[in-house]
Specification:
This protein folds into 2 domains: 175 residues, P-loop containing nucleotide triphosphate hydrolases (Rossmann fold); 105 residues. 54% of the residues lie in helices and 8% in strands. Strands 2-3-4-1-5 form a 5-stranded parallel sheet, with helices on both faces. Helix 11 packs antiparallel against helix 12. The termini are far apart. The relative contact order is 0.12.
């Protein structure tokens, strides 16, 4: 069953546009492309919940469109139709497969071998890697040569929540574009109709530190009031006002995936701002970073179809949250 989030993002894809708060960055990249200055390696970074993948998908379609018009894909040509159906032969998407938490070297090599052939439709080829930090060291090294010597009209779009986890050699061969937290006035007109009005939208954006897609996901889980109870539960766990077992009681009724997402966001907020932007020595926050990485891996497994015992997993997460962030 389609959720409001998937419907909203799907509508953006049908319109061949970035999401409203991404307009400035979109125009910057389109201008670079039209003047022949768009780099072959694009690194899109920012917090989870800002719509980086949606932006990358819109950009992929624009780069592959046979008749782009006014800074957007036409939406009507054969290339656009294939992009929207997910069957464009010159668009490659790399993400961890099934139960894996990394992008394996064999999967990357298969794509790199394919792009040595002539493009089948418009002449351009796009390789989207998301999340880019899922590449293991061997995969990242295999990518380097192609970033250094890309083929004509070949674009690598790397989407990353944690660019600091990418090898410096990969980062240095891409141009970095940051999707920052948007102003409320850019988001409210889009979010309010999807979550019950302006007041609800403002509350949700406050809880998610301004991340629109994270706010919309919360609306699907019961709204700001339910979310506030959850966040207060995390706080009480760290201060010792409740036990891990009592926190599990508060979490019952929520999907395991939604809890993992909220914990990821909570850890980000807890560690002096946002973990995805920490590019230096993370030793100061090692326990939190290790827990964050573990949550990421769990999220990939759950979103990929695995179904671990929810009660046992929540108990383990609650204990680990206390150990990672508690004083």
């Amino acid at each position: 069953m389609a959720t409001r989030e998937t419907v909203a993002i799907g509508e953006a894809r049908r319109m061949q546009l970035a999401l409203p708060w991404q307009a400035s960055l979109w125009q910057q990249i389109v201008t670079q492309h039209d003047s022949g200055r768009l780099p072959h390696g694009v690194l899109l970074v920012g917090d989870a919940g800002l719509g980086k993948r949606c932006f990358a998908e819109a950009l992929s379609q624009f780069l592959l469109c046979q008749y782009p018009d006014s800074g957007a894909a036409c939406g009507k040509c054969k290339a656009c139709e294939l992009c929207m159906s997910g069957t464009h032969p010159d668009l490659y998407t790399l993400s961890p497969q099934e139960k894996s938490v990394v992008i394996k070297i064999d999967d990357l090599r298969a794509v790199l071998q394919s792009i040595q052939q002539t493009a089948q439709i418009s002449g351009a080829r796009v390789i989207m890697i998301e999340p880019a930090e899922s590449m293991n060291l061997s995969s990242a090294n295999a990518l380097l040569k192609h970033l250094e010597e890309p083929g004509a009209d070949t674009y690598f779009l790397l989407v990353s929540h944690r660019p600091g986890a990418l090898p410096a050699t990969v980062r240095s061969r891409c141009q970095r574009y940051t999707l920052g937290t948007p102003a409320q006035e850019e988001v409210i007109p889009w979010l309010a109709p999807l979550c019950g009005g302006k007041t609800a939208a403002v509350d949700l954006l406050r809880l998610t530190r301004g991340r629109p897609l994270a706010a919309l996901a919360i609306a699907e889980q019961g709204g700001a009031e339910t979310e506030q109870v959850l966040l207060e539960g995390f706080d009480k766990l760290l201060t010792g006002d409740i036990t891990p077992s009592q926190l599990v009681g508060l979490l019952k009724g929520r999907s395991l995936e939604s809890v993992v997402i909220r914990m990821l966001q909570y850890v980000e907020a807890h560690v002096s701002g946002s973990l995805p932007q920490i590019d230096g020595d993370p030793s100061k926050h090692a326990p939190a970073l290790q827990f964050y990485s573990r949550l990421e891996q769990l999220h990939r497994r759950v979103s990929g179809g695995q179904n671990p015992n929810a009660t046992l997993t929540l108990e383990d997460l609650s204990i680990s949250l206390k150990e990672a962030l508690g004083r």
